[in-house]
Each structure stands twice: as structure tokens, then as C-alpha cells.
Amino acid sequence: MDFDVVIAGGGPNGLMLAAELRLAGVRPLVLERLAERAAVPKANGLAGVVARLMDARGLYEKVSGQAGPPVPTPFYMFGGMRLHLRDLAANPMYTVLIPQTRLEQILEEHAVGLGAEIRRGVEVTGFVDHGTHVTVQAGAEEITAQYLVGCDGGRSTVRKLAGIDFPGVTDDDVISRSANVRLPTARPDGLPVEGHGDIPPFFFYRTTTGVFIWARLADSLTVNTMEWGEGPDEDVPMTLDELAASVKRVLGADVPLEPPVLDRPPLLRRISGNNTRIAARFRLGRVLLAGDAAHVHAGIGGPGLNMGLQDAANLAWKLGASVHGWAPEGLLDTYHSERRPVAERVAMQTQAQSALLAPGSKVTALRTLFGELLDSDDTRQHIVDTMSGNDVRYEMSTVDHPLVGHLAPELSVTTTAGVVRLAELLRTGRPLLLDLAGVGAVAGGWRDRVDVVSATGPDQPALLIRPDGFVAWAGFDSTGLADALTRWFGAPTA
Ligand SMILES: Cc1cc2nc3c(=O)[nH]c(=O)nc-3n(C[C@H](O)[C@H](O)[C@H](O)COP(=O)(O)OP(=O)(O)OC[C@H]3O[C@@H](n4cnc5c(N)ncnc54)[C@H](O)[C@@H]3O)c2cc1C
Q: Residue ranges of the FAD-binding domain (predicted)?
């Protein structure tokens, strides 16, 4: 076998998967079609509990440029309505402003530093699943591996060649225009526009004719509009004048837009239509899908990388267990059964937001009612849990404890090495029994797979935590612990 896992696509999710596979002790090969990283601007940042995954891998300070653990944001928005989060009992919405190209660079350095191999300028054009292994066609070369993962984006070749359906909907009537610009009239916290006051940055500002957004990014400003109806043909090149005319239609006022001065090609894009689609299966035999290859949706609120990078964390250790031969039966299938429902939730909430941004008096009425509901802490908590991915709960064990199935809480505990944050104990990417209840002896038969850290801490149960950060078991005594260890990490060694 040439490699354990071939990954088609070296975008953020393929690179994250490669790094996670290295932590799981297997040999991945990333095949990336492009000879050099694309300069085309895509994501501007991360939003949601993915920031905690970055923290758990020691990457948070690098991606955020800030010292210390992630701090939740006091404001966010849903469908262009402001969400005040400061007073919530638990605020799980973290935001990190980082251009996708920089994120990819960090993830590539991380993956290569852990020993992953990345080959650029190599396109995956075919594969055969032999049942026992896969043969991947990469240019003129045939590569053998135990598994193939398609991280090759929304138009995934792997998904299409595998014959996996991509059901969902396409909204044909929405036109999004975006560009890097100079906005001579912008102030740090607001863009004054006649008849509208100061429009805050990053805000989806809805009018009767469309949506206007301006944002201050790391190296530039952007302006976006959304309009509903028919746009120009795809082959008509987008221009700054076209964007200025769209801004005028949406706001009913002129906003001076000037070309930016940048040391990279500026963004200037028109996208007609919007897809919400989820692969029918995330696994077919020895072929799996992750990231945009598995799901696409509107980008409102930035859920794409929150989901894709966590797909990678969910999948890697399960592939590792399968390659090493200790995977309990059905473990790899839980990738589909756990992650597809997450994609369904994201499809639901992004479609709901799109609906709330659409024009029309009925939508305006709905927004008024929705705005009233947002006065309730419970409603805001529900919405922000949904948007951040904090509502994800997997079916885990028979133990009935509120932490089981959820992302592990943020904790500091005292070990023999002193006070440590739980995120720091997860850096190895190995399963962890955080033993706050003197139950560590139960895990003796799993020591080759599961780390045991004895600690004291706040009034917390002992926690069995999977490499993706989710709690597989919790208890103040060992009831159910051996079952949970067996269910997730296989039979104990004699
Ligand atoms: C304008 C825009 C703004 C966005 N803003 C945000 C945001 O702020 N926050 C957020 O979370 N998300 C955002 N997104 C979504 C985010 O960019 C995607 O979710 C993310 O890029 C998906 O990563 P991926 O690795 O799955 O796929 P991709 O980034 O699409 O990477 C796939 C890679 O596979 C390669 N490839 C394709 N076919 C093959 C093949 N056959 N063989 C080998 N290689 C192949 C491609 O060259 C590419 O490098 C935005 C997207 C766009 C377009």
C-alpha cells in the first residue's frame, strides 16, 4: 500500500484532515489539482465552536493573531438581525477574522510539520474501490491506499465518480455581488449613508430592494450586495460600476466606491443562484466525503469552515482506528450518521436566514415578529447554539449525563504538572480519560489508545473525550465506563 489515506483536494478541509490523520498515526497523501494556492479570496474567517477545535490543536493563537484562549463575541447576527449575546448564560459564538489563503497556509504548515505529504499540480481523475483498498488515478500515476477522501470542494469529482447523489435546492433568483474596494466615507464603526444613518460593518443591512454589507477585513474593505430577480449573463464581466449601481438600487443612495490598492488580485465577483445541497452518503465503501464536497449552503453567518474542519476532526481518528485495526464494528459509519445531521441543521438555518433577508412585505412582517422573539434569552441562546454548532449532540453511550454527546466543556484542572486547560490536554489528538473521579484503572486495557490524565478540579465528573473533543462518557464513578471505552475504542488488550 502506497499510503493509508489519499485525500483529493488541498483546501482547508483536506489540509486539516491530513494533519488530524497524522495525529491519528496514519500516512495521508494530499493530492491538490492547483500547482499553487489559489489567490482568489474566499472565506474571511471562522465562526462558531470551530475556534475551540483550533484551540484544542494549538492553532488558535496563530489563526486569530491573539494570545490566550478563544473569547466569545458579544454580538452576532441572524438573517440580518442583531443578536446581543453578552448577557447569555453560555455564549458559544467565537469569531476569528482570517483570510482563507492565510488559514490554508497555517493548516498546510501544521500538516507538513506533523509529517503529511502534499503533492500539488496533481488532479484526481478516477479511482477503483476494490473492497480491500482503493486505487486512485492521479495524473499518469496510480496510487494505492486503504481509503480515499474527497475534500475536493462543492463540485467534487470524487463524489460524482462515486455516483453519490447531491440532493437539495438551487435558488436561481438571488444575485450576490462582492468586491474589495476603498470606501472614502467609511468610519471605523459605521458607513454613513443618506437616509440610513451609520451602517455598521459586517451587518447584513436589509432594505425593501436587497441587502447591503460592508466589512473591514485584514487587508481591505469589501462591499457586497444581494438582490433578487434576474442578473446579467454569466459571461458579462463584473465591474465596480455594476456593484455601485447595485448599491444604489439597494440603498437608494450613492456610496462612493473606489478601486483598492492591494498586493494581490482584488475580489470582484458576481454569483447568480445559491445551492443548498447535502451528499446522500458521506461514506460509500472505502470512499468518504468531507467539507464542501459533502455539503454546500448559503454562507450567511460563515458556517462552512465551522462544519468542514469539524468533519475532518470527526473523520480522522475513525479512519485511524480502521487503519490500525482496532475500530469497533460500525465506527467508520458513525462519520455519516453523526455529520450528515449537522449538515442538515446548517442547511436549515442558512435557508431560514436567506428567507428572512428576502424582499417583500410578508418577510418584513416576519422579521418584526422574529425581532420580538429575539428579546427572549432562551430564543437567542437557541439560535446562537444552532449557528455556532454548539447544539450538536451525538448518540454516545447509555450513561445519562448532560455532558455526554456534547463538545467537552471549557475547564481548567489541576494535574501533577499544575493548572492546565482541557484544550491543552487535547493537543495530541488522542482519546483522553480526564480522571477527576479515581476511575483511571478501568482504562488499563486501552492504555495503547487512550491517555489517562488524573486531575482534580471543580465539581466535575470524570470525562472520556474523543479526539474530536466530544464527551463519550461522564461519571462520578466508573459505571458504564468500560462499555463506552469498548464502544468507541474497541476491545481492551489482554
Ligand atoms: C466568497 C466566499 C466567501 C466565503 N466566506 C466564508 C466565511 O467567511 N467563513 C466560512 O466558514 N466559509 C466561507 N466560505 C466557504 C468556504 O470557503 C468553504 O466552505 C471552504 O473553502 C471549503 O473548503 P474545502 O476544503 O471543503 O473545499 P475547497 O476550499 O473548495 O477546496 C477544494 C480543493 O480541492 C481541489 N480540487 C478540486 N478537484 C480536485 C481533484 N479532482 N483533484 C485534486 N484536487 C482537486 C481544489 O483545487 C481546491 O483546492 C466562503 C466561500 C466563498 C466562495
A: 3-349
Work out the number of other CB atoms within 10 angstroms of the CB of residue 466: 23
**CA separation, residue 458 to residues 322, 440, 455, 462 (Å):** 36, 18, 10, 11
State the residue range of the domain holding 245.
Answer: 173-273
CA 93 to centroid of ligand 1, rounded, Å: 22
Domain closes at, from 250, 273, 296 = 273
Q: Whose CA is nearest to atom 5 of ligand 1?
A: 43
Residues 16 and 98 placed together within one structural domain of the fold: yes
Q: Is residue 185 part of a domain?
A: yes
CATH code for position 140: 3.50.50.60
Nearest CA residue ID for atom 19, ligand 1: 304
pLDDT in tens, 200-245: 999 999 999 999 999 988 778 999 999 999 989 989 999 999 999 9
Q: Do 359 and 311 share a structural domain?
A: yes
Ligand 1 site-directed mutation target among 49, 100, 225, 287, most atoms within 8 Å of CB: 100
H/E run at residue 474? strand 471-475
Reduced DSSP (H G I as helix, E B as strand, rest coil) percent helix, strand, coil of the chain, to 5: 30, 30, 40
Residue pLDDT, tens place only, 277-290: 999 999 999 999 99
Cβ < 6 A, ligand 1 pocket: 8-14, 31-34, 42-45, 100, 123-124, 151-153, 157, 291-293, 299, 302, 304-306, 308
Number of domains composing the chain: 3
State pLDDT tens for residues 131-143: 999 999 998 999 9
